[in-house]
Structure formats: structure tokens, C-alpha cells
Amino acid sequence: MPWQSAELHLSVPNLQAAFRATEQVIREHSKTFYFATGLLPFSVRRAIRSLYAFCRATDDLVDSDRASLTDIENWRAQTALPPHQQTHAVLLTWSLTRERYGVDLKYERELIDGVCMDVHFKPYATWEDLQGYCYRVASTVGLLSMPIIGLAEGVTFEQAAPYAIQLGIALQLTNILRDVGEDAQRGRVYFPEEDLRRFELTIQDIREQVYDERFIALMKFEIERARRLYDEALPGIALLSRRARPAVGAAALLYAAILDEIEALNYNVYTCRAHTSAIQKLALLPGILWKVMRLKPPLQAQD
Q: H helices within the chain, ranges in order?
């Protein structure tokens, strides 16, 4: 068994229960991710789901509305413990994963830094500022995952990393657009202030759920930006191992389909949460897999 050597040194009596708890986090919080990672081989699937559960649990600290920076730092310290000292199911499975695959802990620290940015939220003045946040909370996930899912033969981490970063920003921007209403209720408006000014809106307008032609124009602008990011990131999937491409491609393009659902709601993300149903996912999957497996590596990565 892939985890057998680690199990021999654990004080936690039931490692399988920890993995079941991890799986439950994924089923409850991201049906798209759960669906897409089902395309991975078992051991890699379990490892990637452990990473996602860790990211989800970290993010949940700030969504509780009661978290402080002290809580985040306590979580950071607990996260850093080796497997045999973990008692939290999600941190146990994640610590085993990062140890087995030699994950660079720099990106784990950056992810937690990103979550800290939400504890004392400050509006983002520019798109460049927002990209920095998106990198920390989302691009780091792709960078953490690459040692787990593997790269194509001859491809280096440095060649693949820019595409993982771009995809993470696209995914996080999609999250932001889907969750405008929920975030506004928590006092967080992620739209860059320069974009709001472009469409003659203010942060207070978003908090008050202003829905008019200005807001629709803003949403169209941001959706177009997100789609450009997906287009720029997708060639990087061809730099991954063949076993990983279907899952990563499915996760990316099924998530991108949320943008279509926002459009179908006529951009009213205040009162409705855009999502794709299980039937929609199944219908989209064959076309996605056909597209993903035909991707060519970016020319600069072939040099």
C-alpha cells in the first residue's frame, strides 16, 4: 500500500477514517473538484483530495467570521507538525501527502498568507493587487499539486509553473464572480476599485447589491478577463503527466462553465449562486476530454 510505511509510525489509530473525513470535505464543498479528481488513479486522487481538504479547511477559518490572526497562526503552527503529531484528520492526511511527494512548503506558507489577507480585509485598488491575492489563495494550490500529479517527460517545474499560476488566478476570479453576493454580505468586495470606477460603481454599491446596466457591464468585463486567463493557462495542461491531464482539464473547464451559468442568470449573482449540475457535468465531459487530450505543449516549453 502506498501509505503503509507512514502508517507504521502513526499514533492516530485509524488512518482510513482520516481519509474518509477528507473525502467528505470534498463531497460537501466542491462537487466539481470531486467529479474531476475521480479521473485520477487512486493513490494520486487520494493525495490531491487531501490537498484540497487542507485548502478548504484553511479557507473555512476566515469564513467563520470569528477568526483572528492568532487563530490563523495557530493553524499554521499545527499544519507544520509532522504526521505522527497530527490529531486533525485533514492535517494528518495532508502532512502524509506533502511528506510522501516532497512538496515545497513555501507554497503552503503563501497559501496561509493569502487567507490572512481575508481576516482584515482591505479593498484591492488595482487588478495587479487582486492578482497577488489570487496567486496566494489559488495559484499556490496548483504549485502544491504539481509534485503530486506529475509532469510530462522532460518538463521542468519552472516551465509548468507559469501556467499553473495563470490557471489559479482564473479559477479564483471565477470564484469571486460567482460569490459576489455572499462576499458582500461579509463586507468583502473583491472587484478592483479601478474596475468599479470604470463602470461608475463604488464598493458601497456592491454591498447594497446594486443591479443595473453598470453592474452587468462590470460583470461582462470581468468574465471576459477570466476567459482570457483560462485560454492562456490551458496549453500548460499538456505539460502535465498524461494521467493528470483529464482531471486537471476537467476541473478547469467545468469551473470555467460557471461563467456561462452566470451569464444565464443575466449576471444577477446577488440572489443566485451559479453552478453546473451533475447532468451538465456529464454532458460536458466528453467534449472537455477530447479538447484536453489534443492540447499541444506551449512552444516555449519545448525549447
A: 4-7, 15-29, 31-37, 42-63, 69-79, 89-101, 105-119, 127-134, 140-149, 157-178, 180-185, 193-198, 203-207, 213-233, 245-264, 278-293, 299-302
- pTM of the predicted model as reported, rounded to 2 decimal places: 0.88
The CA–CA distances, whole Å, from 82 to 91, 161, 233, 277, 293 equal: 9, 27, 34, 39, 38
- Distance (Å, rounded) from C-alpha 192 to C-alpha 195? 5
Q: Is 122 exposed, middle or buried (0-12, 13-18, 19+ CB in 10 A)?
A: exposed
> Distance between CA atoms of 28 and 295, rounded to whole angstroms?
31
What is the DSSP secondary structure assignment for residue 151, as one 8-state letter?
B
Under DSSP, the state recorded for 239 is G
pLDDT digits (tens, 9 = 90+) for 225-253: 999 999 999 999 999 999 999 999 999 99
CA atoms within 13 A on the CB side of 36: 24
pLDDT tens digits, one per residue of 158-194: 999 999 999 999 999 999 999 999 999 988 999 999 9
